[in-house]
Specification:
mainly alpha, Rna Polymerase Sigma Factor, Chain: A, Arc Repressor Mutant, subunit A, 70% helix, globular
Amino acid sequence: MAERVERELERHRARLYGYALSLTRDRDAAQDLLQDCAVKALSTTAVPVADGALRAWLFRILRNAWIDRYRSDRLVPMAEPPEPPRDSSEYCSYDTRLINSIAVRQAMGRLPAAYRDIIALVDLGGFAYAEAAAILDLPVGTVMSRLSRGRQVLLELIADSNVRPLRVKRRPE
């Protein structure tokens, strides 16, 4: 049974890490959370049989581990911005991507937790509504309505963001 859990952990590692990163907003904390999830998943004897149920179970373990950490720490650190590219020709597009990333990250941080969790699972994690509902222990209709409202709130927060790209004024040569 442990081999199957280990295989599934490896198979869904990138998605689990992405979800952990959306919850913690810190790369190191996300890695720690992913490790906690793996330890808890590998140490249990009651593993779901169906692959879809096992995937949802792993994400639920991850979310519950985050809730436990959040309750004990009462802190949610912000993630550091990514390193800039080494090639100077990529700076313009990098700046735009960085600004967009910052705006979305800030808006996600200001979303109510109920919306943030569902957006992270469905839009970032690629889960179906039913899978997200199973992970969050909510009815599917609630997931769908919160996702719709959450997306709308996120768009409004991004539109109201004060993070804007600077206009580059070119000098005549």
